[in-house]
Amino acid sequence: MAELHTIDEALAALLADVRPLGVEHVALGAAAGRVLGEAVSATLDVPPYTNSAMDGYALRAADAGQRLDVSQRIAAGTPALPLAPGSCARIFTGGEIPPGADCVVMQERIEVDGDVAIIPADIPAGDNVRLQGRDVRQGDVLLNAGERLEAAALGHLAGQGVTQVAVRRRPRVALLSTGDEVINPGTPLKPGQLYNSNRPMLTRLLENFGAEVVSQVSVPDDAERTCELLAEAAENADVVVSTGGVSVGEEDHVKTALTALGELSMWKLAIRPGKPLALGRLPRQGIGQARFVGLPGNPVSGFVGAWLFLRPLMGALLGCPALASLPCVTARADFSTSTGPRQHYMRVMLTFDTQGAQAHAFDDQNSSVLSSCIQANALAVIPPHAEVAKGQSVQCLWLVG
Q1: Which residue in 324, 322, 317 sits closest to 238, CA to CA?
Q2: pLDDT (mean) for 101-116
Q3: Where are the domains of the chain?
Q4: Residue range 7-21+170-323, CATH number
Q5: At 287, is the pLDDT very low, low, confident or very high (cuts 50, 70, 90)?
Q6: Quick check: helix, strand or coil at residue 192?
């Protein structure tokens, strides 16, 4: 019997010698979700000038408690004049603080008598003032390489006037579905057939992990054709992912084809679901090797395997530390369970209350029950040969893209 490997051994084999992919330049508007390939330094202070945090009146704090002439009106985007002695300035949110002023009193606290403002006492210097460079100073590192460009990061770049950004090239993934019984939706089912649920599920997960799925191929239960299609897939991809065909049945040809074409690094893991998982490499003519991940055909096994293996692999290829591992949350189990020799990854929903996180397990944890993955937002990790009682603490991997 083949040795069952641990998940740590599998990840070590999968990520061995992985180097981040090259950098390309894209428009900022097309960079959402991409991974920054080079650090970006600030060329501007943010905010670029000292301005008001609200609508009100700008003045010297030393003049608080007096009647002050309103000497100017400053709207956002309007240059401010130096503040005349013994006066204040009507100012609006974002307006430039006039030279000589050091605080802003909100308009609700001011009484106005014609062109005179009656200022309350005890106004501290700096009140309601946003200093130039409070957020970012020119020359500061704005974003580091490896950061994912989501909403706030994109806004940070736009605030510097950035229009082009250097990002990592997306990993190109070829997605293969094996088995004569697996057909595409839209075709009438015949006895013994089933629709391909893995393809759209894995495509979406891979895209969330930062990859580009460049091909989707159906592989028949034929040894020679399996070899041909694996070789073709490797030529145009950084990673080849297959579903099914990695078990021990007579029609499971992927493992044999991988061994014939390239390298089988590891097969069979001591985890549940996802035991029959194959890892290896496929040659590419003149351009090195493509990584190979052979996921089981059961959809839950594919779902769990994608989070455990495809996500960190995409993170390594993108040079993105945030994708390297899933956040771990300690939660109270609302279930009881026991495990055998394999580590169990149970689909659970995490909820939060005043006592912390609670893990709610789905009743049917069979690897063919994909419905359990729809509401699941975490995987409870149950070690081998363990007994978990209701209320006991369990470690959960939070499923975030």
Answers
A1: 317
A2: 96
A3: 7-21+170-323, 23-43+140-168, 51-130, 328-398
A4: 3.40.980.10
A5: confident
A6: coil
Tens of pLDDT, residue by residue over 374-387, are 999 999 999 999 99
Pair of tokens at residue 267: 């097969």
In this prediction, residues 229-237 reach a mean pLDDT of: 95
List, in sequence order, the alpha helices (H) in 239-347: 254-261, 299-305, 311-318
Provide the b/e sequence for 338-375 (b: ≥16 CB within 10 Å): ebeebbbbbbbbbeeeeeebbbbbbeebebebbebbee
Which candidate, 66, 54, 41, places its Cα nearest to that of 92? Answer: 54
C-alpha closest to that of 388 among 328, 339, 330: 339
Across the range 129-137, mean pLDDT stands at 97
CA distances from 228 to 225, 252, 253 (A): 5, 15, 12
Selected from 3.30.1330.60, 2.40.10.220, 2.40.340.10, 3.20.20.300, the CATH number assigned to the domain covering 328-398 reads 2.40.340.10
Task: Report the CATH number of the 51-130 domain.
Answer: 2.170.190.11
Sole residue written with tokens 């997960």? 205
For 68-95, the pLDDT digits (tens) are: 999 999 999 999 999 999 999 999 999 9
